[in-house]
Write a structure and sequence with these properties.
7-stranded mixed sheet, 4-stranded antiparallel sheet, 9 helices, 11 strands, Ribosomal Protein S5, domain 2, 286 residues
Length: 286
């Protein structure tokens, strides 16, 4: 039996550079794993079967089943696997849970089947599954470019204590496509914000502000998100940021004590809050 953590992520920068001819967008992003994580357990089995603790997660609608099928097709291995996903990361939240689960399954199957695939070979499979999946083969702090498939590991950010705010709002169908479609011409940038982050990390300088191009468009598109944002900003003097494509938002606290204090205030005001922190590739999940 093999057990792996599949960490969530936040985007510390997310810039859209241009629309591409293939229908995707050229991006630059500093992406960071956090300690909140799903747990993926797998073992050899006569048949392939999936299980979960979640009442809403469906293997057939996730990347997990696609990953198992792709691995079997690519490697020619046809034995079954019993795979359990303990969901802790909110779904369709902008935290990359499905992509992280897929990357964990790729790594787990490689070990379980003893196929000996290199990370480059796993990376090529990950690219076929989704734009965020390659990053989760690395974890930690990284620069994402292209449509997300070009991943360059970076020096780790200093420890950040974060409070995730999980809005209880109706999921936005076709979320990512609608967010990109909602961008205006002046939302496109040249990547300068991300380059400043890379420079600061490499030189161990003070980090620039967190910046996500989807901040404003998400609050326009997600029904009720603006109201949640207003509630959170009324409870803290810290900036409130969008996690990836949302709708989860997060606040960077000064320390764990401040994070836990803010979490209590958010919960008292009817919001779901999760205290977490940035995590290196070797860190375990919570």
């Amino acid at each position: 039996m093999i057990t792996l953590t599949a960490p969530a992520k936040v985007n510390l920068t997310l810039e859209v550079i241009a629309r591409r001819d293939d229908g995707f967008h050229e991006i630059k992003s500093i992406i960071q794993t956090i300690s909140l994580a799903d747990i993926v357990t797998m073992e050899n089995s006569r048949e392939t079967e999936f299980s979960t603790n979640s009442s809403v997660w469906n293997a057939g609608q996730s990347l997990v089943a696609k990953t198992v099928a792709l691995f079997r097709e690519t490697t020619g291995t046809d034995s079954g696997v019993s795979l359990h996903v303990e969901k802790r990361i909110p779904m369709s939240a902008g935290l990359g849970g499905d992509s992280s689960d897929a990357a964990a399954v790729l790594k787990g199957l490689n070990a379980l089947r003893e196929t000996g695939l290199s990370r480059d070979e796993l990376h090529r499979m990950a690219e076929q599954l989704g734009s965020d999946v390659p990053f989760f083969l690395y974890g930690g702090t990284a620069l994402m470019e292209g449509r997300g498939e070009i991943v360059t590991p970076l020096p780790s950010v200093p420890l950040m204590h974060l409070v995730l705010v999980v809005p209880d709002i109706v999921p936005l169908i076709g979320k990512t496509g609608k967010l990109y479609a909602g961008l205006k011409e002046d939302d496109f940038t040249d990547g300068a914000v991300t380059r400043r982050w890379v420079s600061a990390l490499e030189r161990e300088k003070t980090l620039p502000d967190i910046d996500n191009v989807f901040e404003n468009v998400a609050r326009r598109l997600f029904p009720g998100l603006q109201e949640v944002y207003d509630t959170v900003t009324g409870l803290t003097s810290r900036k409130v940021h969008l996690a990836g494509s949302g709708p989860v938002m997060f606040v960077k606290a000064q320390d764990r004590l401040e994070a836990e204090s803010l979490s209590v205030r958010l919960i008292e005001n009817g919001l779901k809050a999760v205290v977490t922190e940035t995590a290196s590739p070797s860190s375990g999940g919570q």
